[in-house]
Amino acid sequence: MAKMILSMDGLVLKEIPLTKERMTLGRKPHNDIQIDNLAISGEHAAVVTILNDSFLEDLNSTNGTLVNGQPVKKHFLKNGDVVELGKYKLKYIAEQAAQVTDAADFEKTMVLRPNMIRPAPAADAAAPSVPPAAPLPGGSPAVGSETAPAPKSFGDTHAGGLQAQPSAAPAATPALAAAIQILNGANAGRELELTKTLTTLGKPGVQVAVIAKRPHGFFITHVEGAQFPVVNGKTLDAQAHQLEDHDVIEIAGVKMEFFFKT
Fold first, then answer.
1. Which terminal CB of the chain, N or C, has fewer other CB atoms within 10 Å?
2. What's the per-residue H, E or C state across 1-43?
3. How far is CA 192 from CA 27, 181, 196, 234, in A?
4. Cβ-contact 128, 121 below 8 angstroms
5. For residue 221, which of 249, 246, 193 has the smallest C-alpha distance?
6. 247 neighbors 241 (Cβ within 8 angstroms)
7. Going by C-beta distance under 8 Å and a sequence separation of 6 or more, which residues neighbour residue 152?
8. What are the FHA domain coordinates in residue numbering (predicted)?
């Protein structure tokens, strides 16, 4: 299990295991990691952990968040990274010290533009035909980019081993294939295939969520914002939620349909 070591002026204060998928850091008592100092915002930052990997998100704090001396808004944490909040430091210790994931694997959320995703096929028997919902106020949705797959990032983790006797290879399990279709706004009707291990959705500073592709399905997790994602009219909590075929997701006023591709 990954953990963070809190220190100030070189003095270790405590070790904090990252036991939840989303843990907040801030001055107010309700935070998972409370740092009672006026230089720290009430809700300063959050650490989201999926499988063996974690990333840090600054929650629009007043004084900002540094990682290894550099200001960040969103940062994929690597073993040994030092997060700085005022005079306090949090050193990230990964479960496995050998990290192969590059920081660029988790890209900053960006605004989806029409030329970034292909239009849904005019006649595709495999994809469901869902009429776009009526446009909602707010204009184009903001949908994040997908991360490049990495051996240990938010995906399959396999333990290698030696077999005493050779055996026939098991039949390959078909890879999960899924996509989301925008239902309202300027990009209504367009598709975004979920081919990578992690996809960010939403509007930075308003509401952001991630869809993680795992061996047994696709899971959506809240990352940023006071409002949590809504799936089929039900507001989610801080825990990861497994998506089912034809689920309708609402993030930052944008509705989209999740579906499996065959």
1. C
2. CCEEEEEECCEEEEEEECCCCEEEEECCCCCCEECCCCCCCCC
3. 38, 6, 11, 23
4. no
5. 249
6. no
7. 52, 53, 96, 99, 100, 101
8. 23-72
Residue where the block lists tokens 């390959």: 172
172 Cβ contact partners less than 8 Å away, ≥ 6 residues apart:
none
Tokens for 233, please give them. 């009219």
pLDDT at 256 over 60: yes
Q: Above 60 in pLDDT, residue 194?
A: yes
Is the separation of the CB atoms in 2 and 83 below 8 Å?
A: no
Q: What is the model's pLDDT at position 160?
A: 41
Q: What's residue 140's pLDDT?
A: 44
**pTM given for the model:** 0.43
Least confident residue range of 34-38, 60-64, 149-153, 172-176: 149-153
Write the CB contacts of 180 (distance below 8 Å, at least 6 apart in sequence).
191, 192, 194, 201, 211, 249, 256, 257, 258, 259
The pair of three-digit structure tokens given for residue 14, joined into one six-digit string: 């405590």
* Residue with tokens 């295991």, as numbered in its chain: 17
Contact 200, 209 (CB under 8 A): yes
C-alpha 249/C-alpha 181 separation (Å) is 10
Positive or negative: CA dihedral 152, 47, 39, 202:
positive
